[in-house]
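PROTOCOL LOG
Step 1. Enter all chains and additional molecules of the complex.
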Amino acid sequence: MCGDPVIWKPSEKSPLCALMVQKICDRVVARFGDDAPDGLIQTVIGERETGEVLTASRDVAIVSATGSTRMGQAVSAAMARRFGRCILELGGNNAMIVSPSADVEMALRAIVFSAVGTAGQRCTSLRRLIVHQDIYQALIPRLKKAYSGLPIGDPLAEGSLIGPLIDRDAFDAMERALEIARADGGDIFGGGPALRNTYPDAAYVHPAIVEMPGQTEIVREETFAPILYVMKYSDLDAAIALQNDVPQGLSSCIFTTDVRESEYFLSAVGSDCGIANVNIGPSGAEIGGAFGGEKDTGGGRESRSDAWRGYMRRQTNTINYSRDLPLAQGIKFDI
Amino acid sequence: MCGDPVIWKPSEKSPLCALMVQKICDRVVARFGDDAPDGLIQTVIGERETGEVLTASRDVAIVSATGSTRMGQAVSAAMARRFGRCILELGGNNAMIVSPSADVEMALRAIVFSAVGTAGQRCTSLRRLIVHQDIYQALIPRLKKAYSGLPIGDPLAEGSLIGPLIDRDAFDAMERALEIARADGGDIFGGGPALRNTYPDAAYVHPAIVEMPGQTEIVREETFAPILYVMKYSDLDAAIALQNDVPQGLSSCIFTTDVRESEYFLSAVGSDCGIANVNIGPSGAEIGGAFGGEKDTGGGRESRSDAWRGYMRRQTNTINYSRDLPLAQGIKFDI
Amino acid sequence: MCGDPVIWKPSEKSPLCALMVQKICDRVVARFGDDAPDGLIQTVIGERETGEVLTASRDVAIVSATGSTRMGQAVSAAMARRFGRCILELGGNNAMIVSPSADVEMALRAIVFSAVGTAGQRCTSLRRLIVHQDIYQALIPRLKKAYSGLPIGDPLAEGSLIGPLIDRDAFDAMERALEIARADGGDIFGGGPALRNTYPDAAYVHPAIVEMPGQTEIVREETFAPILYVMKYSDLDAAIALQNDVPQGLSSCIFTTDVRESEYFLSAVGSDCGIANVNIGPSGAEIGGAFGGEKDTGGGRESRSDAWRGYMRRQTNTINYSRDLPLAQGIKFDI
Amino acid sequence: MCGDPVIWKPSEKSPLCALMVQKICDRVVARFGDDAPDGLIQTVIGERETGEVLTASRDVAIVSATGSTRMGQAVSAAMARRFGRCILELGGNNAMIVSPSADVEMALRAIVFSAVGTAGQRCTSLRRLIVHQDIYQALIPRLKKAYSGLPIGDPLAEGSLIGPLIDRDAFDAMERALEIARADGGDIFGGGPALRNTYPDAAYVHPAIVEMPGQTEIVREETFAPILYVMKYSDLDAAIALQNDVPQGLSSCIFTTDVRESEYFLSAVGSDCGIANVNIGPSGAEIGGAFGGEKDTGGGRESRSDAWRGYMRRQTNTINYSRDLPLAQGIKFDI
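Step 2. Run joint prediction.
Step 3. Record the structure below.
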């Protein structure tokens, strides 16, 4: 990474993918022969303690950490103590605003894909839908209809669009969130276990749409599951305020055909997220742009423009090739 | 600052300058009338607790802190807890390498200015001198001679080149450092109180040159006073290793006329500081370059290129103006 | 200009402004004393021959020329012969597309200002109006009404919005253009001399709106006078084709509230001009952006980003500070 | 090239290489199927008239031409007439300055490689050697010795370092240049035909070193053959003046270990070429830098940074998403 050696500690819940990638890296590194030092790219598997060894070691100049806000705080504080650098990509609570002028067909496709794709387990999954009151009735019933027909199943099987949650803990967290949402006045569509008979050990679920009377505490939390909270708005400023009024600041989007609305949403008084899209979902096609978020998302950026800055030292150089010695700020100092 | 309002908390030891600047800012802000919100630029005077209020408040999105490493760690950890941003400019322990090919006259002037100017109380003051053995005898005796003739006195008086230390604590710290250096085998030239009779309440000192047998612990510390530790080298790589082997990473320089040495010093295997100069002192004329340092100096940058990045939010935008909806990573997801 | 000395040859029709500016420059240069060489900024007054002396002289490394396409061709060819550089800002034939979703009030104001301001004698004056058929009746009658009430008069007098043409030649060119347009089937509103009794020696005119059956030859020419050719469209691609189908490529704009239209207009298949605005006239508020145009406008850019490139030399440097000699393309060549 | 289709017209003297590359491109283009339009990359073989068709056609928006200054002038003037763009890379007359502090071994290798490699038929071939008088005797005799041992032969054969000139015209031009140089007082070492018996139809030559009493007219011309003119200097400013005093401005270099000399050479008062290297020949390892030259070399740049600017349109956009209409320069214009 920018010439730095890399140690990769994957989530303890998904070590296999990292091990596969390590094998690929090994082959690549081998091609460079002696030009590539031993251990240039390494994978370590472990839990919290392993991570703590990395953040504690002065030999690790920078830690790029993706995960929960709590983990991010721990990493960030550990690195701060020794003036190491962090690139944090923590929680997201990504919203879409659907304006009256939106292309409803397009919005519909974008919502379903970004709310239920990878079973809502993407950092940029859509979690909150803020719909203008004038378009609410044209959108929500169709959305529920689309949800009803989604094929849940083995993610490796042709045709499956929704696979399982990662484990039973994730399932429990989803259930708990739905319960709280209901207690807050939410009207739940969908949710609950799926394919229990076929896959008794897996945590398949039906994705849920929850129409909320307001943005209660549970809505302001990131639940890593396919729950989509839906809220109504009548005024764009209020919708943006709602969108911004969560601790996380990863991704956001607006569906509108009105250039005044789209540019306003992208302006300094618009979305406060690190990613803001127009007519494309929060887990959009922004590949190539700097990726990361503001506020509790941690402020880090990976990929493209500026990401290299996180990984590199910066140095300001002045070369005096004259035969005189200029002094700072033009000071006179004759000895 | 980049459109952000500013609250300035100066060092509790030097509040008057801040208050003067505040007065100037008030006049400037007044010219903008209602376009400038109330309290756009404010000064608060206080000690550690005042600073803690600022770092604790979520309303303060970013803290740019200049001062000690200990303060920096506290600020950094406090900000990490709430994912606020820091721009830290902490301690420096700035060195100069003098190579055999150096222009001795030029080096001499640069050393004196940067070691004793503002009585060694500049973040970029020269604190360590790493001299090639072949030029040592040509340089050090002349340096001592130059020190002997330096006019110490009221900094507002014409002709004074060395004013007082900021307070008695600073004087004590200097005395203590010299004692330790002597115990470590250092050979001290100069040092000790000056102008005691004329200014009994002020902390005037004679600047000190300390020839050290090696880079002991006290040399690796920043003592905010006019102490210059001198060491010998015979090989450039060893000199660079010595220069880099301190916790701080603010400024550094080399005096050489050899382009192979100068570029090597500026290369990835050269100085690890945020500032590296050639034929110009560490408190050089780098105005216009990004200012700040690596390692325990805290990694922040103020002034010019890139500094604005510290003060601004970043947002990646994708605008889909087509009538199709591209999905992330080209995924197929038909509902 | 980027450290270069400047010789300014204003249009022979307007020397006084240049002479005034020269006086200001003289005062500025004088402040620098001996640091500013004699003749750093000079004004020369003259006709074509004077310009030819400048383009012929090898001492003039770069010519930035603003004026007619014919002049630009002559300058460009003369500079090409000696590999001098040009920055050309030649004719414009700026259009506005008004889409059905446009804010009509805003468009109206923008049209009037940019078509009749400075009596249509601005390089970025609006000369062509391409209006969607569905909004044509809502816009054109109101535009004519606005034209009827415009105060023509001494440009130094309070309240005047339209001053005179620069000379009788300009008046004749306007009359000739209107005649041709009428012969082409154009329906002319306004036009003709104004204030003849009050200012018998000046060339005041009534601004003209000409509804055209198509983009005939006269519409494709730049007539430096307040003539606005109006055409209808029904399909955005056709409107953009019309907008692009002139030799000049300076400025262009669209009035629309539809983000799909605005971004399409700004895309690679949209306007081919050097300036393209949305909801702002062609002589818009783009101060701060690079200024200039494509095609027969000459390709030059002044102001901001990139403009300095026109005025400066560029040099690629490689410093080899190793003790080895790398050869180009890794060639092996042992002697 | 930056999304533009390409028509390649190689030199009429070397069509085969272009045809081979075209075959490769055909294979690449084929992979894109219908996404790549027919004729995306084409090769045309022809002489001057073919080139004139390209420069005359308004369908060819930009011509990047490499070749002689005369050709460049013709292309440039033809493009100027229709405001087409050129990227010109014309003649070079590349020099090396060898300072007293130079690493002689390194300079020697660099001189031989860049003066005789590809038999002096590279745009960046070394043509002029400007040697400090104090190092002249240490360098020139060794250079002659190195020249004596260079293996001339079939460029495809292992061990050959010098192949033939491209044709008999090139041979005649070299002979003519050497004659003139001799008449100007030049002292010639080497030169003349080689391997005539083995390859009667080819134009093999012995590379020539010509010690000149000064920079006469023939030295200021580019002769595309392995002739190296050698001159002496005693003062760096004079050496740089000599280096700059030719019409061409492609590449240049200095061999020195003195940072004051190297940076001076790279400064605004140093080399006026588009490429300037330190301790690396003019046909150096600058791959990755912008490639091209100033003055009669034509000013164009290919490769990396900025080169894309030559191939692309530029557009300044302003989007007004407010409900107000700002006017240029804050003008008040109420209708």
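Step 4. Note key features.
DSSP finds ten helices and 14 strands in chain B.
Chain B has two domains: 6-90+290-311, 94-278.
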